[in-house]
């Protein structure tokens, strides 16, 4: 009788072991299959994006033309003289002093030229805000991107003075984009 129970227990243990072995193989197999399916879907999405590249290129061109229309095409020296003329005449009328006219900083990447100009004036807060409004209304000299207000004490008179720095930026396409899109996949 002892041998029957022993053999019966061995049989059940072998059944449970076989069940665990089959279950483990199936679960690991399905896990790997689902992982490969996700990778396949990801690669198919990438392929669809690459095949859609000519249409995306046309869309980007249209967006660039729209941005150029909004930002304006600005040339180097001409916009600088316009800026000095606008700021100078406004400063003369509204008791502001042009403190600094920094050289233009240019950044070029992928055929797009971004030029940034910094102007600092000294005067009252109200007049600085009026100049801010004037610069926002003049898109031909560039778009106003940032303004900083800084208060400093004059060492001779002991009075506080307000310095306002305006950062103007213009974006333009430096070279034309090729009309024929390059093929990524052959």
Detail the topology: elements first, then pairings.
Elements: H1 2-51, H2 53-71, H3 76-93, E1 97-101, E2 105-109, E3 112-122, H4 125-136, E4 143-153, E5 160-173
Antiparallel strand pairs: 1-3, 2-3, 3-5, 4-5
Entry summary:
The protein is an alpha+beta fold and 186 residues long. It has helices spanning 2-51, 53-71, 76-93, 125-136; strands at residues 97-101, 105-109, 112-122, 143-153, 160-173.
* % residues in beta strands: 15-25%
The assigned CATH architecture of the largest domain is 2-Layer Sandwich
Overall number of structural domains = 2
For the terminal residues, how far apart are their CA atoms?
A: 75 Å
In DSSP terms, counting alpha (H) and pi (I) runs of 4 or more, how many helices? 4
Mean pLDDT: 81
Major β-sheet annotation: 5 strands, antiparallel
CATH topology of the largest domain: Alpha-Beta Plaits
Which structural class fits the helix and strand makeup? alpha+beta
Into which percent range does the helicity of residues fall?
40-55%
Q: What is the CA-atom radius of gyration, in angstroms?
A: 35 Å
SSE order, as H and E? HHHEEEHEE
CATH class of the largest domain: Alpha Beta
Query: How many β strands by DSSP?
Result: 5
Global morphology? elongated
Unreliable spans = none
Overview of this protein structure:
By secondary structure, this protein is α+β, with helices and mostly antiparallel strands. The protein has two domains: 1-51; 73-173, Alpha-Beta Plaits. It is 53% helix and 25% strand. Strands 1, 2, 3, 4 and 5 form a five-stranded antiparallel beta sheet that branches. It starts with a helix and ends in a 13-residue tail after the last strand.
């Amino acid at each position: 009788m002892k041998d029957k129970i022993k053999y019966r227990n061995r049989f059940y243990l072998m059944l449970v072991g076989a069940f665990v072995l089959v279950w483990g193989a199936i679960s690991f197999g399905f896990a790997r299959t689902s992982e490969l399916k996700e990778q396949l879907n990801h690669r198919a999405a990438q392929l669809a994006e690459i095949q859609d590249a000519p249409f995306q290129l046309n869309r980007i061109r249209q967006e660039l033309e729209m941005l150029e229309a909004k930002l304006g095409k600005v040339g180097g020296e001409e916009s600088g003289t316009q800026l000095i003329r606008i700021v100078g005449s406004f400063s003369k009328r509204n008791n502001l002093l042009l403190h600094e006219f920094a050289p233009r900083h240019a950044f070029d990447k992928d055929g797009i030229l971004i030029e940034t100009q910094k102007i600092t004036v000294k005067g009252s807060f109200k007049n600085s805000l009026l100049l801010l409004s004037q610069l926002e209304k003049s898109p031909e000299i560039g778009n106003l991107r940032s303004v900083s207000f800084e208060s400093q004490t004059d060492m001779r008179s002991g009075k506080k003075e307000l310095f306002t720095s305006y950062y103007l930026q213009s974006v333009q396409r430096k070279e034309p984009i090729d009309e024929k899109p390059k093929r990524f996949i052959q």
